[in-house]
Design goal:
Belongs to the binding-protein-dependent transport system permease family. The chain has 321 residues and is mostly helical. The chain is 76% helix and 1% strand.
Length: 321
Amino acid sequence: MLNFTLRRLVGMLPLLFLISIVVFSLAKLMPGDALTGMIDPTNTKPEYVAEMRELLGYNDSIISQYWNWLKGAFQGDFGQSFIHKMPVIELLGQRLGNTLLLAVTSLLVTYILSYMMGLFSGKRPGTLADDAIIGFNYFAYAIPTFVLSIVALYVFAIKLDWVPISGTISVGVEEGTLDFYMSKLYHTILPAIVLGGFSTAAYTQFLRNDIIESSRKDYVRTAMAKGTPESRIYNRHILRNSMIPMVTFIGLDLGGLLGGAIIVETIFTYPGVGSLFIASVFNRDYSVVMTISLLLSVTTLIGNLVSDLLYGLVDPRIRIR
């Protein structure tokens, strides 16, 4: 497995190089530049703007600009944020923790709910409860994320006042205390439920169908004929095999959730990487845009690797070499 991991990591290098070219090219194809988003042309002399563009290297060739950016990225220097007046890596450090908390919480919501509903529905196919769960899944799967976010924000935050409307920390909470961490979780739970709701519907349906299919196989019928208790059949034979694909989805979900958090964070005014990405696009803060895009690509590649490794761990029939 170690050799497989090393080969995959080495194989990511040329792919990351191609991704960096695409990310840099897309950023440069966008209209304007960082100075366009930062400077008010009515109160700034054109000579000053031209001098700043020359100083920052915006007048250099595209190849030269890309090479300078790539060298800085390898050294951990992703440039400065012109809007926030600080290094990009430091700015991401302030936001990444919030996004990771949101992603992990939404993963817990997804797998707990999908496990409970999928198991319940798979053991009772064709019943009224099963039909209700299927109908709920199709309904939840069909609603766009931004619509669900707005409705949840209006109902639970504004009307019922169960959760905060925005932010990650309540005012006056001291950092490092128990109240501090409880406040972060309190602000995260509603965006996490919304973000995890989409995957919950899909995984519940997947687990339900797999349990029904597995229960009709010969080895299950043989176990039933031998008088094996139903609970043991489901726990040791059916559910264990049905959970294998879902476990391997964890790695893919980690990369997907960071990208999917862009919409949820923006609507809930949640200060994470997703909302920072949208704000940076509108403000033409291209150093931040390129760094976040590259981060999402790297996370997706690592997620694919984690999925392959998990598949080999949970299924002994698979040998990773």
